[in-house]
Structure formats: C-alpha cells, structure tokens
What we know:
Blueprint: E1 6-8, H1 12-34, H2 36-47, H3 49-57, E2 61-67, E3 70-80, E4 83-91, H4 100-114, E5 119-125, H5 129-137, E6 141-151, E7 154-164
Amino acid sequence: MKIDMFISVLTAAQVETVAVLARKIWTEHYVPLIGKEQVKYMLHKFQSTQAIADQITNGHLYFLIMNSERPVGYLSVQPRNEELFLSKLYVVSSERNNGFGRSAIHFCQRIAQERNLNKITLTVNKMNQNSINAYLKFGFKNQGPILQDIGNGFVMDDYKMEKVFTDGK
Length: 169
C-alpha cells in the first residue's frame, strides 16, 4: 500500500474535489438504488462543500484516494469511543476492482490502531450488494439491519457491519 495514495483533505480546494467526486459517484451509483430525489437530498445534506467542511470541523477525517496524481475516490472516518466509524468510502466506477477499496480498509485499520481502537464499523445500503460482498471479503461481519431517519421523508435502510482486529490483522 502506498501511503501517498491517501491525501488528507485540508484545503477548500480539496473539499471541493471531494464534493465533485461525491456528485459524480453518488449520481451514477445510488440513483438506481434509492432514487434521484434522495440522492439529491443526501448530496446536499452530507456531501456539499459546506457539509464536508462542517464534518471536518467536527472531527471527521477526510482523505482523497489518489492514483498517481489523479483523485479517484475519497474516504471519511470518525473516531468514536472504542471504534473507528468508516463513514464514506467511494471510488469512481472506472477505478473499481483495482485494489483501492482493500488499500483503503488497510489504511483505516492503521488509523484505528494508531488511536488504540480495535474495531472499524460502517453502514452500507441493503441494496448495495457489491459493496456488501466486498466488505465481507475484507473481513467485516454483518451485524444486522439499521434504519435511520435522515429527514425530509427519507431513510437510510442499511446493514451495520464491523471488523474487529488484533495484532495488525
């Protein structure tokens, strides 16, 4: 895993890059799963430049995933009590299945271990079978359904997944 593959999002320009990637990835990937109106709402609420900047101010860590000098995705984690919550992990469709997801999980695990956390948790849409399968392959266990009201008549109908690790595994 190349460490320079993950660049901390610190500047306004980097935040804008994440927002642009989010619009591209979410529109392509999530409209068929949850519909155009919910994607539009969620992009505004969670992935606009202001929302991302606010999340960073409140302790979320954002990273651009780079392929050479080109951003191909992003991830966001939030240390919480005893765990690291993997809030976002997205890669543009043309770069999927090239090892970026696996590298990102290893990177997140390193972040967790640096903070003496031995668990990574996440939520994933129940209809997002490819991502569910990838997380299972990466050692996550499905902890069951979780339904979250996100406002404006929309819900996130997800599974909670977790990966517990010890001794770097």
